[in-house]
Amino acid sequence: QVQLVESGGGLVQAGGSLRLSCAASGLTFNSYGMAWFRQGPGKEREFVCFTRSGGSVFYADSVKGRFTMFRDDAGNTVYLQMNSLQPEDTADYYCAARLPKTNSIRDGSNYDYWGQGTQVTVSS
Predict the structure, then answer these.
(1) What is the DSSP letter of 88?
(2) Which of 35, 76, 75 is nearest to 52 (CA)?
(3) What is the rounded (10 degree) CA torsion for 113, 27, 91, 70?
(4) Radius of gyration of the chain from Cα atoms?
(5) What is the DSSP letter of 121?
């Protein structure tokens, strides 16, 4: 059974940092592209970043320069290092996985598996 389990969320003050983890099981991890999405209160689900094994990372403009995504294929885990956090980053953060395909990485409907989410709250 495929599982994606996020962890590392919490409450931080503006300007602080958090590192989120997504541990994957039940799949051949390096065959899947991995993404982070987020959904803030009253907002639509928003693309954050994406990478495939050995590939470059694609970031949403809103997080570019502040967030860093990286993956540990041996450990079947993908991470999101979040620095310079701002209140507008407050959201539930989800990881998602998909096999290679040509449709948009920014559309959540194009992913095969999702984690349960982890909550990030940034206070001013």
Answers:
(1) G
(2) 35
(3) -130
(4) 14
(5) E
CB within 8 Å of 122: residues ≥ 6 apart: 11, 12, 13, 14, 16, 85, 86, 87, 88, 89, 90
Task: With CA atoms as reference, report the closest residue to 35 among 22, 44, 25, 26.
Answer: 22
φ/ψ (deg, to 5) at 49 = -165, 165
Task: For residue range 33-88, list pLDDT tens digits in order.
Answer: 999 999 999 999 999 999 999 999 999 999 999 999 999 999 999 999 999 999 99
Cα 51 to chain centroid, rounded:
10
- Cα 72 to Cα 54, 65, 68, 102, 108: the distances in Å are 10, 21, 13, 24, 22
pLDDT at 34: 97
